[in-house]
Amino acid sequence: MKMSIILKYLQAFGWSWMWLTIAAYLGQNAIAIGQNLWLSTWTTEAKQIKDFTEWIHLRNHKLSIYGLLGLIQGFLVCCGAYVLTRGSLCASRALHHQMLDSVLHLPLQYFETHPVGQIINRFTKDMFIVDIRFHYYLRTWLNCTLDVVGTILVIVFASPLFILVVVPLGYLYFVIQRYYIASSRQIRRLAHVSHTPIISHFSETLLGVSTVRAFGHQERFIKQNRDVINENLVCFYNNVISNRWLAVRLEFLGNLMVFFAALLAVFAGSNVDSATVGLSISYALNITQSLNFWVRKACEIETNGISIERVCEYAKMDKEAPWILSNRPLVGWPNEGIIQFVNYQVRYRSDLGLALQDISFQSCREEKIGIIGRTGAGKSTLTNCLFRILERTRGKIIIDGIDISTIGLHDLRGNLNIIPQDPVLFSGTLKSNLDPFGKYSDLELWDALELCDLKNFVQSLPKKLLHEISEGGENLSVGQRQLVCLARALLRKTKVLILDEATASVDIETDHLVQSTIRKEFHNCTVLTIAHRLHSIMDSDRLLVLDSGRIAEFDTPERLLQQKGMFYEMVLEAGIQQEMDS
To answer: Residues 67, 31: contact at Cβ < 8 Å?
Structure first.
């Protein structure tokens, strides 16, 4: 574990809780040693007493002190458990919030280039270790560390020459520990990395289970699942083997420590009190188990600290621009809907070429612009740039006189409207999907549904607006999901509307309904329409034809047909020109 990760966890743990934990555990272990020493002195003094009355008085005195020490130790044990638990809860809560906040601020391209299983693994297995296991390992390691230190101090107190044995044995322990930790840490990393493909493959299989069954590829997917699980089990098996390797060596060194403690006690002879020698030997007999536990828990802390490292890794990732900035647009912006691209360039990643090159055009107020082009021309990329899902490489986009790069993402995206190609619905009621922030009345919701030809369908549902939508809207057809997205856009009704293949999932009749509704309800708005069906954009005021990320043509449909350029060829291929001529 890097020191930065340790400091990160301690900061989340809380410095006050950390010092209280150390004080409580030091206190309880010091009192435990004090209790044993108190019994040792009691044994020595009891041998020198001849009078029974004096022995009774000594017994009462020693038992009273011993009982008081036991009460204090019990109190400190409870305090230590409480403060360590509170600190661990604070740490896990803080790390979870940091990771969740970081994931919610990640650019959308991250989710397109990284498997969802990787993110789920962080929030499940890694957070499980931080929440539950790490607290246990930290507590047992702290106890074992103080037990080992206390044991060595007691043995050295009884036989000072034991310090000559502790130094080489401690060095051997250190060498074995570092060698084991280095191997165990990497094995644990491999185990974590090999666990991600299991989740990814299983989730992908569930999403595409109908396709897998349709093509009869069940056995292939079962074999792939078995392969990724076997790869994970290989790492787990190596982890078990490394634990056995450690146990053999630690047992041997622990027995050496007991041997030398007893040998030095014999050499000391009558110079040391027998009670103290007995105490040191009893401590030495327990040190083997304490040292085994100490090294194991130290290794467990470091290997499980990988989970903290993986959780903290997300906090360092590049995030989107701030959601809210001090430079906020006025209420009601945009009020005209004039969009201007000025020498705009953008790329998806730094290692890829430009997706849009030198895009420059300006819309008029309340203008309807159709955006067309062949696959990969940059149509959807253009809409991503308007919402700053992709950040510019050069140039700027100006909406009603405001450069969109100078305002927060919430102010930008909250004042633009889009009906996406893939309808997005969430688990919850139909009402919460239409109006997630509760801004509109039920009457307005019914009006929007009526405009989308969904009113009769919703009224036929038992719970109507409170009808439960399943995850992703699976209990609605694709066309109905698209109409719900249209109703959501009708409710917001901003001055700029983007239609990204909005009718790609509906039939021709519903397509005409959607188009007529948009023409009627958004007649005073600027509408950018991306469509493969040229019928739906033939009535646009102007058409923007893209080719390989550049503007190939930009004019009215009539003039573009007269120019007989790229748009004219697309019309001929679609067979629309013959329909117009006839």
So the answer is: no
Q: pLDDT of 131-141, one tens digit each?
A: 888 888 888 88
Cis before 197 (ω within 30): no
The contacts found for 564-572 with CB under 8 angstroms, 24 or more apart, are 567/372, 567/543, 570/372, 570/374, 570/534, 571/534
Hey, where are the domains in the chain? 3-316, 333-416+540-582
Cα 343 to its chain centre, rounded Å, is 37
Cβ atoms of residues 490 and 435 within 8 Å: no
Least confident of 406-410, 445-449, 508-512: 508-512
How far apart CA 582 and CA 573 sit, in angstroms, is 16
What pTM value is reported for the model? Answer: 0.71
Please identify which residue in the block is written with the tokens 């006189």.
401
Report the C-alpha gap between 198 and 297 in whole angstroms.
28
Query: Any residues with CB less than 8 A from the CB of 11 and at least 6 apart, and which?
Result: none
SS3 333: coil
| Topology adopted by domain 3-316 | ABC transporter transmembrane region fold (1.20.1560)
Beta strand 417-419 with 428-429 is: unpaired
Query: What confidence score (pLDDT) does residue 582 get?
Result: 46
Q: Give the residue among 150, 171, 11 at the shortest CA–CA distance from 91.
A: 11
Nearest to 189 by CA among 240, 234, 122, 235: 235
For residue 200, the one-letter residue type is S
Sign of CA dihedral 174, 179, 180, 185: positive
Residue 171, burial from CB neighbour count under 10 angstroms (0-12, 13-18, 19+)? exposed
Please work out, in degrees rounded to the nearest 5, the angle formed at the alpha carbon of residue 396 by the alpha carbons of 390 and 401: 120
Rg of the chain's alpha carbons, rounded to an integer? 36
Counting Cβ atoms within 10 Å, is residue 546 exposed (0-12), middle (13-18) or buried (19+)? Answer: buried
Q: Report the Cα–Cα distance between both ends of the chain, in Å, rounded.
A: 76
Angle between helices 52-104 and 274-313 (to 10 degrees): 10
Pairwise CA distance, residues 183 & 432, whole Å: 51
> Do β-strands 339-347 and 428-429 pair in parallel, antiparallel, or remain unpaired?
unpaired
Spatial separation of the C-alpha atoms in residues 322 and 47, rounded to whole Å:
78
Query: What is the crossing angle of helices 52-104 and 15-47, to 10°?
Result: 160
pLDDT tens-digit map of 279-331: 777 777 777 777 777 877 877 787 788 888 888 888 788 888 888 888 888 88
Residues linked to residue 186 through DSSP beta bridges, in sequence order = none
Q: What are the CA-CA distances from residue 514 to residues 120, 394, 508, 509, 531 (Å)?
A: 38, 36, 10, 9, 13
> What's domain 333-416+540-582's architecture?
3-Layer(aba) Sandwich (3.40)
Bridge partners of 371, per DSSP, are: 530, 544
Is 123's pLDDT higher than 80? yes
* 371-405 residues labelled b (16+ CB within 10 A) or e (exposed): bbbeeebbbbbbbbbbebbbebeebebebbebebe
pLDDT tens across 532-563, in order?
777 777 888 898 988 888 888 898 888 888 88
> 64 near 298, Cβ under 8 Å?
no
